[in-house]
Write a structure and sequence with these properties.
- By secondary structure, this protein is an alpha/beta fold.
- The chain is 46% helix and 12% strand.
- The protein contains twelve helices and eight strands.
- The protein has helices at residues 17-27, 40-51, 54-65, 68-73, 89-106, 115-122, 157-164, 192-197, 221-241, 263-276, 278-286, 289-304, and strands at residues 4-8, 34-38, 136-143, 149-152, 174-176, 179-183, 202-206, 246-248.
- Strands 1, 2, 3, 4, 5, 6, 7 and 8 form an eight-stranded mixed β-sheet that branches.
- The two termini are 32 Å apart.
Length: 305
């Protein structure tokens, strides 16, 4: 019997495309045996394994985005601002001063959002043991102490999602036992290998990384640091994606991680790309397991040459 696994990548708001992907797979009665998520992929994937109903996942997400605590975060402020030509002198001046004040404050804090408001936001997520889900689920996160990638296969859904989606500098690291955990994208944004570890014999990877090309060179030290991280993450993802049996890429690459205003459009992009790849998805889903193993072995041999 086919054991189809999904590797759902991180990308903030772009990760809502995973909802569209799951909508189509569910409508086509393509059964998912295992999901491993990273960051937003862990949220969508974890909720799907909990509810086993993509409509309930979508309802949860939209309800959460309208929640007063989520609105209080003000993540829309992280979207691209108007260009210098469009902003007047005073807007530019206060941006200049504000950026420096916030930079000074940052040296005394671990993140932009504090522990209290972050905990209140994650309280919305069900506190359910993931090891009891009908669909196997895991989520990756990165430990700041050891530098290791951790793949959580048990524990509270709420804690696991929080650890996997703790964007460095934006949300505080999640402390669990001996670990200090941050967003899984730090080590691997599309966890193809990890979903095989929890039982998948064939893997569809959903890549929602943003467009690597930019129009304007970084203007300050922060932009240079973030840009360097983006480049590293992108190339690591491309290497890991080679291990998937099929990769689908929703057209969301031009959306910023905080662009939740485009949620419906992003979900639609996930639906569209899945429908466009249905023939290949069904072929993979129905493929003989022994033939698939041989093809995977051949791919590894060719990759090592």
């Amino acid at each position: 019997m086919s054991r189809l696994g999904l590797a759902l990548g991180g990308g903030g708001a772009r990760g809502l495309a995973h909802i569209g992907v799951l909508k189509v797979l569910e409508a086509e009665n393509i059964k998912i045996s295992a999901i491993t998520g990273c960051s937003m992929g862990s949220l969508v994937g974890g909720l799907y394994c909990y509810y086993d109903d993509i409509k309930k996942v979508e309802e949860f997400v939209f309800k959460a985005m309208k929640h007063p605590k989520f609105q209080e975060l003000g993540v829309e402020h992280f979207n691209k601002k108007k260009t210098g030509e469009e902003r007047n002198y005073f807007e530019q001046f206060f941006d200049f001063v504000g950026a420096r004040i916030n930079a000074l404050k940052a040296f005394n804090h671990l993140s932009y959002f504090n522990e209290e408001i972050t905990s209140e936001i994650y309280e919305l997520i069900p506190d359910a043991p993931i090891e009891k889900f009908k669909i196997k689920f895991s989520a990756i996160t990165s430990d700041l102490i050891s530098g290791k990638e951790i793949n959580f296969t048990s524990g509270s859904l709420r804690d696991v999602i929080r650890a996997s989606s703790a964007i460095p500098g934006i949300f505080p690291p999640f402390r669990f036992k001996k670990y200090v955990l941050v967003d899984g994208s730090t080590s691997e944004s599309v966890p193809v290998r990890r979903v095989r570890e929890i039982g998948a014999d064939r893997v569809i990877a959903v890549d929602v990384t943003k467009d690597i090309a930019i129009d304007v060179a970084p203007q300050n030290v922060y932009e240079i640091l973030y840009r360097s991280e983006d480049i590293t993450s992108f190339h690591l993802s491309q290497e890991r994606l080679k291990e998937a049996d099929l990769v689908i890429k929703p057209d969301v690459k031009n959306n910023n991680w905080s662009n939740f205003d485009n949620s419906e459009e992003i979900i639609g992009a996930g639906e569209k790309v899945t429908k466009n790849n249905l023939k290949e998805i069904k072929k993979l889903y129905k493929k003989n397991g022994y033939l698939l193993q041989f093809e995977q072995l051949l791919k590894k041999v060719r990759g090592s040459v």
